[in-house]
Structure formats: structure tokens, C-alpha cells
Amino acid sequence: MRPTKRGQSGQQDLLRSRLDQIVDLAHPLAKLARGIDWSFLEERLGAVYTDRPGRPPLPTRLMAGLAILKHMHNLSDEVLCERWLENPYYQLLCGEEFFCHKLAFDRSSMTRWRQRMGEEKLIALLQESLHLATRSGAAKPADFTRVIVDTTVQPKAITFPTDAKRLQRARERLVKLAQKHGIKLRQSYVRVGKFALIRHQRYAHAKQFKRANRALKTLRTYLGRVPRDIGRQIVGDTELKDVFAQPLRLARRVHEQRQRQRGPKVYSLHAPEVECIGKGKAHRPYEFGVKVSVATPLQRCRGGQFVAHVAALPGNPCDGHTLAKVIPAITQQIGVSLTRVIADAGYRGHNAPRTKGLRVYTSGQKCGVTDQIKRELRRRSAVEPVIGHLKEDHRIDRNYLGSRAMRQMLSSPRLATTSGSWWPGSPNLCAHCWQSPSSTIRNHDTALKPLEAGSSQTRLSAKGNAAQRALAGVVREANAAVIEANMTRPAERVVAFYNQRGTAEQWIKEGKNALTWTRLSCRRFTANAVRLQLHALAYNLANFLRTLTLPDEVKQWSMTTLRNRLVKIGARIVRHGRSITFQMAEVMVPRGLFQTILAAIAALRPLPPERC
Length: 612
Hints:
By secondary structure, this protein is α/β, with parallel strands linked by helices. The chain has 20 helices and 11 strands. A hairpin with a 7-residue loop joins β2 (275-278) and β3. 26% of the residues are buried. The model is unreliable at 404-480 (pLDDT under 50).
């Protein structure tokens, strides 16, 4: 079925007020909701659906509005669902007439919608954003005839690749898959493989490279034996051959490749499409991900610095060889013929299409360069802050896609960028990479489930000096988990201590999100140290007040939620004739809960001294 078209019906409700009656219509998001041509987006994006019977999809305006909000404010799908449920302006942009207290969609619906649309359909969002910019006077079509083109790298969410870690990881994946399908290996090398990896890392850190190479050779030997053992046991079983085809192929490639070999290599087992891109930066000579092309107007538009085109370039092509694909894409998307392209020295020897009236100039070029072109070449660096803005605020800093086919969708152009404003006080609308992430973001640290005290699969062993109080590590065997500790405590207390290992990480993350204590922007080290101490003091006071004043039903709220619901709250005074109404935001906590919190805070005050 096709999605239903959503429009303003004008209906009233005696028990509820319409969103356009309780919000400020001068708010940037309210202006944006009125300015976008939603019928154009519904026509273009709704073309992927058919009239076949089935469950009707979610409205196109709802999903398109969610996608715009997600990348405008750099939000994950989970956080966007929370903000949408709390913010009436978000709901107004998505076409809601009344405030919704329950989600009208699911988080996974956003992922499925992005995958269904694809790159070709979502280009309509970029075209509509540029059209809106020209209608509102923020830009003119002539501004996009001369552009600056540059490339950057969108890193994948992987650890820094080393030969030892890849060999160890490939063997662990094969052993885990073999145990899952009931294949009994002659030897899994779980214990000795871990110690060999530790020895290699310690020898390499101490610059004892001969010993490190011997440990690396041991890891390579372990990896070579496991695939051969699996291959012997799956002979004649077609189903198991299909299951192990991809893991065995990757493991053999990791086993055969060497450090300085040329050609494609495997840098990550969970993302084999990762490419090594050398950018020549002093602080980061190599980056592992996918190359991305960004194009911006040469001169700043009236409404800000827009992004006219952004696209992923798989295969790590030379910068100069990307213009044959980028220039026709820019012309097709924005509908304006290019007359001049400014690029850096890496685009020398380009293969740009020979179009009438189009000239490409690169940094350092001497032939045919006039004074005006020299000034424009000095303007070439204006694209660098735009790239930094995209990476910092609009989700281009990481590539979470898991296949080569979907990488092109990741950096496909969707929405125009401006570093200024389309109207006074409006938010920055940025062109960015629309992601279609997998269900989970992988954490490459070994994550173990909490152990149960007294379980038959948990064995504790005490080692070392009893005076030391630390956990030495956890070793996972086939049917048991061994906690090697040097603590003189009962087994139950050791297990409870181990299960709290991630608590500090959550506290640090909470401090980063709520207090931003990692943003130390002072130039002097002493000033930054003082600011860090003040952040720690504020964190302790917040925890102190949260423990003493909050009721049990909200005591587990994070500091970010407390800040948004108790501190950053707003109200509006509406006057009608002789009556004055004090309207509180609907995202605030209920009245009874708020009164309980105020009473608990008042109880913290010391009592006045009694009179004699």
C-alpha cells in the first residue's frame, strides 16, 4: 500500500489544543514546516511504494521530518525518539496536529525507511532544501555555478588494524562459529592465543622486534591450523560449507597478507570493505574508511555557506579521477550548469568532462590564471571549515554501514548546508551523510555478560599476594568462566565486584554528556585543571541532590534527563481579556512529582535555632 498523505485538517478538540496554537510560530522549526513543499517530497519519496495489499506504511512527511531532525541536531535514532516525544516543535515539523504522548513509530522503522528509499530517492531532500533556500532568498541559482570541490575521509568504526589483532580476531571468530554449529576442533588455542597476543604487544612496545615477530609467527600458525581443521570436518556438508564460506575466505586472506604488500587488504573482520586512505596529515598519516567528496559554492551565499553535493567514492580513487563522476552529479542534482570548479593540487591531471563553458583550476596552476582567478584560488580553503562542521555536528565523522553496496548511501547528498541562517534565529540546516546503521553499534572491546555467583559454570581462583586488591582478568573457556583474582574475599563478593566493572564507564559518559567536562578550552594548563575540578564538584553535588531529593520513581534518571525536564523548562504567559494563563511545557514532570521534589529540597535546609 501507499502511505497516507498528511495535511492540516483544521479539526478542533475540546480537550486538547492544536500544536499551532500553543507553539511560537516564529520558531525556526515552525517556519521550516511551513516552507518545505511536502507534496513534492511525498510524490518523489512515495514512488517506491505500490498498491499491493498489506500494512500501510508510515506517512512520508513523518519519516522525512524525522530524517531531517536526526541529522540537523546530530541525534541517534534512540535519542531522536525521546526528543520527538518531548518536543512539540519536532512533532509540528513531522505533520502532527495535536501533541502526541506516545510514539507513532518505532526506532527500527527509521532504518527500514532509509534502506527502502535508497540514494536515488533521497536526493529529493537535497533538491527541496536548495529550492527552499532560493525561495526564501538565502541563495540564488547563480551562486551554484562556481563551486569548490574537495575530498575527505569518513572513518569506519573499527580499531586501528594491526597484524596481530587481525590474526587473533579471525581465529576467535572461527572458533566461536564452530562451537555454535557443533564442530569439535582438535584445538581452539583460546588460552595460548591470548597469551601470544599479549607477548607480541609487550615486545613491540619494548622495541624487541625479533621476539615480537616470533610471537606474530605463532599467532599466524594458530590461525592456519584452525581453518584447515574446519575444512576437513565440513567436507561433504553443503549447509556448513555455505555457513563457513565467508569466514574461511576472510581468515585465509588475513593469514596470507603481509604488512607491506600492495593491493587490497583486510583491515577489519566485521567490515572487510574498509580501505586505507593516505591523506598525508602529520597527526594522522592514514585513515581507514571511505573517501567522500564535498562541493560548496565558491562565494558565500546570503544565507550562509551551503553544501551543493556530497557523495561517497568507494574504491579509494585518485582525487583527480573523481571529477568525471562528481561534476555530472552536481549538474543533475541542482539543475545549474557549472562554469568554474576550484580544487586543490591533488586534482591535477583530472579527467573532468569537457563541457562548454566549464573550466577546472587547481592550486598552484600558472597557465591561464588571471587576477580574479588568483583571488578565487585563495578562496579554495573555505571548504575546510564546512567539512569540519559536517564531521563535528552532522554525523559524517563515522561510517557505521556494514557492506560495500550500502556505503554509497551513507554519504549521499540529502540536505543543503548553511553555516549562517535562512531567517533570523533559524537553525543551521546541513548537508550530511545519511546513515542506515545496523541494529547495534559494535564495541570492539570484549563484552562479557554478568556472571552469577554460585553457578556451576563459574570457577574462582585466587593468585598472588593477598594484600593486593585487584582482578587479574577473566578467561572464557568452553563451559566455564574463570576469574583470576588476587582478592581474599568470598566467591560471591568477587563475582559482585567483577559485575560492576562497567559502572565507572557509565559515570564518565554521564559526566561527558550532561556536564561536558571534557571541553577544556582554556589556553593555560592551570585554568583547565581548575575547570576540571569545578566540573567534578558539580557532578558530585548533582549526585548528592539526586540521592536526597528525588523520589524513587525518578531517582534512576540520568543527569541529561534531569537537566532537560527539571532545569531547562519553559513556560508561556497567555493573556485573554481579563484572564492570564500560565502555560507550562507538556514535557515537564507531573505536578505532584514536582511538589514532592520541592518539598524534599526544602527539607534539606537547616532548621532555625530554637529561642531560649
